[in-house]
Amino acid sequence: GNSVTQMEGPVTLSEEAFLTINCTYTATGYPSLFWYVQYPGEGLQLLLKATKADDKGSNKGFEATYRKETTSFHLEKGSVQVSDSAVYFCALKKGGSEKLVFGKGTKLTVNP
Amino acid sequence: DADVTQTPRNRITKTGKRIMLECSQTKGHDRMYWYRQDPGLGLRLIYYSFDVKDINKGEISDGYSVSRQAQAKFSLSLESAIPNQTALYFCATSEERRGGDTQYFGPGTRLTVL
């Protein structure tokens, strides 16, 4: 079946550090891939998405590239801020399916 | 105003009680979803609805029921709550569009069953 595996946290970084959160997926065909972010006490918000191989999603300084050959969608940011502290979820959705399959989430804490 | 609202935001109840969680949206989307979030497990789909007359079970529907009262309202019920239903519950909406649709989440309801 379809599944998403993302690096386990928690991840703790200092402000302005480089961030990578790994995400790999298992799916047949060509799913759409998403990163959602959940700030403390809030619901999930779409951070970025990519719908086909080699697409790069970007938003708020975050980027992720859809790599079909490695079935990956790693999240990166060059310089994190304290306000980026949140839980990040990688997810996939197959065309024709209503199911959004989530990874288990990675908690990021950025210290000043 | 928020596009997707959930009430209540927090609820504590006892085993065996009937509980209803409500979700309303102003986005005009036809599709609505209920998820539960448990620590270390991510989000799991309970039920989803394409429109008022189309309701479908998700991966963990046992012990839950839903009602789509209108396009904008989708309620989740626990007929007889049990402690392992203690979780954070999220409602979401989407509209189908080519290339992968985005789901928009409400702020969540934290439910504790004693």
Average pLDDT reading of chain B: 91
Order of helices and strands of chain A: EEEEEEEEEEEE
Overall pLDDT of chain A = 93
Q: Largest inter-chain interface?
A: A-B, 22 and 26 residues
What is the helix tally of chain A? Answer: 0
Query: Beta-strand level of the residues of chain A, as a percent range?
Result: over 45%
What are the segments of chain B in which pLDDT stays under 50 over at least 5 consecutive residues? none
* Fraction in helix of chain A: under 10%
Question: How would you describe the oligomerization state of the chains in this entry?
Answer: heterodimer
Number of strand elements of chain B: 11
Please indicate the percent range of residues of chain B in DSSP E strands (runs of 2 or more): over 45%
SS content category of chain A: mainly beta
Low confidence ranges of chain A:
none
Summarize the structure in words.
The complex is a heterodimer of chains A (112) and B (114). Chain A is built from no helices and 12 strands. Chain A has strands at 3-6, 11-14, 19-21, 23-26, 32-38, 44-50, 56-59, 62-65, 75-77, 86-93, 100-102, 106-111. Chain B has strands at residues 4-7, 10-13, 19-25, 31-38, 42-51, 54-57, 65-70, 73-78, 87-94, 104-105, 109-113. In chain B, strands 2, 4, 5, 6, 9, 10 and 11 form a 7-stranded mixed β-sheet that branches. A 4-stranded antiparallel β-sheet of chain B has the order 1-3-8-7, with no helix packed on it. The N and C termini of chain B lie far apart (33 Å). In chain B, 32% of the residues are buried. Chains A and B meet through strand 5 and strand 6 of A and strand 5 and strand 10 of B.
